[in-house]
Amino acid sequence: MEVRFVNIGFGNIVAANRMIAIVSPESAPIKRIVQEARDRGMLIDATYGRRTRAVIITDSDHVILSAVQPETVAQRLNKGVDDE
Description:
The protein is α+β, with helices and mostly antiparallel strands. Helices cover 32% and strands 32% of the residues. Strand 1 (5-9) and strand 2 form a beta hairpin. The longest helix has 14 residues, at 70-83. The relative contact order is 0.23.
């Protein structure tokens, strides 16, 4: 199985096949998921100090914060699929 990677901003890359969801951080349930991941040590902050615009949830229960819009991450993900 070939592993594909997606750029989530500032040179940070995530394995596409491990991503379950790309969501906006605005809602209370997502904020709760982020806080719980932080408490468990499963949070990866890839924002470089900028505002969080996307929250990526992986199958390994890691939560990744990105400063790139969810739509942009999804387009980059779909671009990789279209290229194949």
